[in-house]
Amino acid sequence: MTRSRRLRILSLDTTGKAYAMKHYKLDKSQIRDLAVGYGLAMVTDMITVEGYPVGYMYRDEPEDEHDSGWRFFAGNESDAYIDNPKNFSLLDVNVIANYDETIIPLLASPAGAAFDKGDEGDTFYDVSE
Fold first, then answer.
1. Which one-letter DSSP state was computed for residue 60?
2. How confident is the model at residue 21 (pLDDT cuts 50, 70, 90)?
3. Chain centroid, CA 44 distance in Å
4. Second label for 108, Cα 20 to 30 Å away, from 4, 16, 26, 54?
């Protein structure tokens, strides 16, 4: 029997109890150095588990020295999906860049930046307020 070599994470609920293991689409050996040094970001499982590309991304003020402030969504998440913290992971921005390299040119954008690929899904448009 072969063990899966996909990235897995044991998630913790607010009480510190483990509740699930996630099986990411990319294997650890597939992660290349594409966007190193940006820190951590929140990303939905639609991207990292289901394999959808990034469709919407925005940058908040970082919460601490490890947080990049970036938040990544596929764009097809329902409100109920977004309201469930189990549908998110905190990952290095480099890992997320390996799922969708089109985010890389935008990563130096300041807090307050927001980008959406729109209906055609090929090019990010600046939707910052």
1. P
2. confident
3. 6
4. 26
